[in-house]
UniProtKB/TrEMBL annotation, chain A:
Belongs to the binding-protein-dependent transport system permease family. OppBC subfamily. It is found in: Cell membrane. PROSITE patterns: ABC_TM1. CDD domains: TM_PBP2. It is a multi-pass membrane protein. GO terms for cellular component: plasma membrane. It comes from the Bacteria. Keywords: Cell membrane, Membrane, Transmembrane, Transmembrane helix, Transport. This is ABC transporter permease.
Length: 352, 575
């Protein structure tokens, strides 16, 4: 029996979301602890890296003292954490610049890249997925699927190099092959440097998302409620856009979140092939240089990014699924959200 | 009319009937008889892999099969409405019901102005018995009860004022009480508005008080058409007779007779009469000639060479069994409290005596399944005292020792989901034998054969996989799986509710036989007719408490509480 619905009350997903936020922050904190301890366990001494192998022992000890590396590890951690909470990520050992400033530029670049990928891949995946689902099992669908699978099987760097060959050869020089972004100019004035990296990453993310949208569209199109609406004489365009797509979007959101999570930690493909100055290469060189503050800062930022993407995806899922959005208790949301399975995907009760 | 599969096998053929305005036609048949195919074919729709191949569906002068595109869309809904089986699946979870109704109305009558639309919506909602206020229309389907959802489906069909409505088992997913209300609403609306209706059902009992005429389908053909009174008093086709004999009744305990064998799949119809292999009245001519539908008199048509021409003989009434109750019950439950995120069972006490069949009756949500699971040791979070054969028994199956665990076995509601699709039946039966008795090889094989024979399945079944079997056969396998454990108590959770009526009769007869051999049964169900057929004693559960218990005849004939009186009245209404 449904209980009377009170509209004045706070929605149950709000406490659920606050709980999830808390868990996200806890995750970030645990990761920061792990990273801090792991960097301490690296088999070399930052002071020696900075001063070089020839440096005398006294100056190394002096530097260690200056950097605070001689203190107990917990004390070091808490002073670092206190700094972080004040927004100060420390000074890079390698370049002697503030870590926060370095990260701000590089992470900004990565975010711009992700935004570009999203703007290209979302409409494309939706159009292709919906289109193929509507023409399911036709020749177009079979060839479309085959193409997507070939694209998926092609290694990312091949796609990237192929794009460079297509668009940036001397006789056909449309787009820059290398993303020589000038850090002093705003990014939005150098969008041509973004084009090829965005394109390459979109192409490698597209097959997965398009097939996800196609599969969930087919499932929703086969559902009883779409069949019933069709037999009620609801026009085809409304069937597709109002009855099917909103229900097919939920799995797609989790798919997009998965793609973003992989890309956020470093779209290494683009960063290496196009020398795109993102956070991945920054972290890589920081590890090689044993630049502890930079490693810690970069990992912290990436972790927070991943946590944020997860949170947003879950929030969107709940908001787009009426049953979860209108749940009366936060515990119901937890129980219904097992992976990306939607609650209405019950196995058929009767045999066909 | 004819519908065939891509392979060319016909699903339904030689279908021919007409309906007067306001007339309700019942379309009855077992699963696989092609009744749902016929129902959607009336709307010029065939499921994937099938197509409508010739024929004519003419509603109020419009030939639906000749239409396409925009004209067909307008005819669907506007001229002929459709109400699907499970309202929980047939309502879009992401759209508020008010919007669904408005959308349907606008798709067919875009010219209506706002005031006229709202007036029509309010009128329709009142007709189907739903509150019309704005707050209600803003609800999503999951915020409604099953009965309300089905009323919304009815409103979606009736809001367009169609000439014909096709209802495809609209009450199968509902409780008995809700079912009776929905049936009454359908009948009232059809008569008031002069709408003809085709009501599809697998259960003759359900439509007894609803329809004017009944059409019985078997293997894609119409085998009998008759007025309601004639069909129930003097069925002409042996198949109809078999269906009628399989319906359990609340009022009296009768011996149910199942129809032997099962219906042929499309493409595997035998030559001649499709029912001949299962027919008790067959002759040599039956397997040579396919009988056409012929009129017996004004109100009855039968497709049979040897139609029954006399009234149905009075059924045998089963003798009332007296179970001698031992002084100590076999299973004794005291003070059970169970909660998940809310409390489901309250202070529940129960005795099960050796050799009896105890029915646990209740509507959905009453906690009857939770009670059964707790007895089986599958319930989490229960607190209470349970003893078995005088010995205390844990409420958790994993804390029971193997020697007692195999003595209580559980059979699940849905045989389509209770068997592992990747295990052959043999493997499925072998696992408990190895686990409990350490049997291997020939000894194991012998036990499996014995168990299959006991549930009346051939020994070759062991090599098959669940998808090779029909629903009734699967449920027999599930029973065999419980039997190989050599249980003393079988807990049956709605074991027949996913099955056809005639198959249900066969399963009930099997359980009855097992009981006669000394098995103790705990039978969970919401169907009082089934209870009357099988149970010796009844426990009625409501909101997690036992509100009435006693001997079956006692409780059903002289209910002590208003609630049980209501249940019995509803069950009698629909039977």
């Amino acid at each position: 029996m449904p209980e009377p619905i009170r509209t004045s009350r706070l929605p149950a997903w709000l406490p659920w979301f606050i709980g999830r936020l808390g868990y996200g922050l806890l995750t970030a904190w645990v990761i920061s602890l792990v990273v801090f301890i792991a960097t301490q366990a690296l088999p070399s001494d930052p002071a020696r890296v900075i001063l070089g192998p020839e440096a005398p022992l006294e100056s190394i000890l002096t530097l260690r003292q200056q950097l605070g590396l001689d203190r107990p590890i917990l004390v070091q951690y808490f002073s670092w954490l206190a700094q972080v909470l004040r927004g100060d990520l420390g000074i890079s050992l390698d370049s002697a610049q503030p870590v926060a400033g370095l990260l701000f530029i590089r992470f900004g670049n990565t975010l711009a890249l992700l935004l570009g990928v999203l703007m290209v891949v979302l409409p494309l995946a939706l159009t292709i997925g919906v289109g193929l689902a509507l023409r399911r099992d036709s020749r177009l669908d079979r060839w479309g699927l085959a193409t997507l699978i070939v694209l998926k099987a092609t290694p990312g760097y091949l796609i990237a190099i192929g794009l460079v060959l297509l668009f940036s050869m001397p006789h056909f020089d449309l787009l820059p092959a290398v993303s020589l972004i000038d850090p002093d100019r705003p990014l939005w004035r150098q969008l041509d440097y973004l084009a090829l990296p965005v394109f390459a990453l979109s192409l490698s993310a597209l097959p997965y998302l398009a097939r996800l949208v196609r599969a969930s569209m087919i499932e929703a199109l086969d559902s009883d409620y779409v069949g019933a609406a069709r037999l009620r004489g609801v026009p085809q365009w409304r069937l597709v856009w109002c009855h099917t797509l909103p229900n097919a979007l939920v799995p797609a959101i989790q798919g997009v979140a998965l793609t973003l999570r992989t890309l956020i930690g470093g779209a290494l493909l683009a960063e290496v092939v196009f020398s795109y100055p993102g956070i991945g290469t920054l972290l890589n060189s920081a590890i090689q240089m044993r630049d502890l503050p930079l490693i810690q800062g970069a990992v912290l930022v990436i972790t927070l990014g991943v946590v944020l993407v997860n949170l947003l995806a879950d929030l969107l899922t709940v908001l787009l699924t009426p049953k979860l959005r209108t749940a009366r208790r936060a515990s119901l949301i937890q129980r219904n959200r097992r992976g990306i399975q939607s609650w209405w995907r019950r196995p058929a009760a009767k045999a066909p | 009319m004819r519908v065939e599969l891509d392979s060319g096998a016909d699903v339904i053929e030689h279908i021919d009937f007409s309906l007067a305005p306001g007339e309700i036609l019942g379309l009855v048949g077992e699963s696989g008889s092609g009744k749902t195919t016929l129902a959607t074919a009336l709307l010029a729709h065939a499921r994937r892999g099938a197509r409508i191949n010739g024929g004519r569906v003419s509603v109020a002068g419009t030939d639906l099969l000749a239409l396409d595109g925009e004209a067909l869309r307008r005819a669907r809904g506007g001229l002929i409405g459709y109400v699907a089986q499970d309202p929980a699946l047939a309502l879009n979870p992401a759209i508020r019901i008010g919007k669904l109704l408005l959308e349907t109305l606008q798709a067919h009558e875009p010219g209506l102005d706002r005031a006229a639309r709202e007036q029509r919506l309010a009128q329709t909602l009142a007709d189907v018995g739903l509150p019309g206020e704005r707050e209600f229309l803003r609800r999503f389907p999951h915020q409604l009860s099953g009965g309300q959802q089905q009323r919304v489906m009815l409103a979606l069909a009736f809001v367009l004022r169609p000439k014909l409505i096709v209802l495809d088992e609209p009450t199968t997913a509902l409780d008995v009480g809700t079912r009776a209300h929905i049936l009454a609403t359908v009948r009232r609306l059809c008569k008031e508005q002069g709408v003809a209706a085709v009501y599809v059902s697998h259960d003759l009992g359900v439509i007894k008080d609803l329809v004017d005429r009944v059409m019985v389908m078997y293997a894609g053909r119409i085998v009998e058409v008759a007025s309601r009174e004639r069909l129930f008093s003097r069925p002409g086709h042996p198949y109809t007779l078999g269906l009628l004999a399989a319906i359990p009744e609340v009022g009296r305990q009768r011996v149910l007779r199942a129809i032997a064998g099962h219906a042929p799949a499309p493409g595997q119809r035998p030559a001649g009469c499709a029912f001949a292999p299962r027919c008790p009245r067959r002759s040599a001519a039956c397997s040579a000639i396919e009988p056409a539908l012929q009129g017996l008199d004004g109100v009855q048509q039968v497709a049979c060479l040897h139609p029954q021409l006399i009234a149905v003989p009075e059924e045998e009434i089963a003798p009332v069994q007296v179970v001698h109750q031992a002084r100590t019950p076999l299973l004794e439950l005291r003070g059970l409290n169970l909660s998940y995120d809310r409390q489901v069972l309250f202070d529940l006490s129960l005795d099960v005596h050796r050799g009896e069949c105890l029915a646990v009756v209740g509507e959905s949500g009453s906690g009857k399944t939770s009670l059964a699971r707790t007895l089986a040791g599958l319930g989490d979070g229960g607190v209470g005292a349970l003893s078995f054969d005088g010995q205390p028994l844990s409420l958790m199956a994993r804390k029971r020792d193997a020697a007692t665990r195999h003595r209580i076995q559980y059979i699940f509601q849905n045989p389509y989901r209770a068997l592992n699709p990747r295990q052959s039946i043999g493997q499925c039966l072998q696992a408990p034998l190895e686990h409990f008795f350490g049997l291997k090889g020939a000894a194991c094989r012998a036990r499996i054969d014995a168990a299959l024979a006991r549930v009346a399945l051939p020994a070759e079944t062991a090599a098959k996989y669940p998808h090779h079997l029909s629903g009734g056969e699967r449920q027999r396998v599930a029973i065999a799986r419980a039997l190989v454990c050599e249980p003393e108590v079988l807990i049956c959770d709605e074991v027949t509710s996913a099955l056809d009526v005639s198959v249900q009769a066969a399963i009930l007869a099997l359980l009855r036989e097992l009981q006669a051999e000394g098995m103790t049964l705990v039978f969970v169900t919401h169907d009082l007719g089934v209870v009357r057929t099988i149970a010796d004693r009844i426990v009625v559960v409501k909101d997690g408490r036992i509100i009435e218990q006693g001997g079956t005849a006692e409780v059903l004939d002289r209910p002590g509480t208003e609630y049980v009186k209501g249940l019995v009245a509803q069950a009698k209404f629909q039977r």
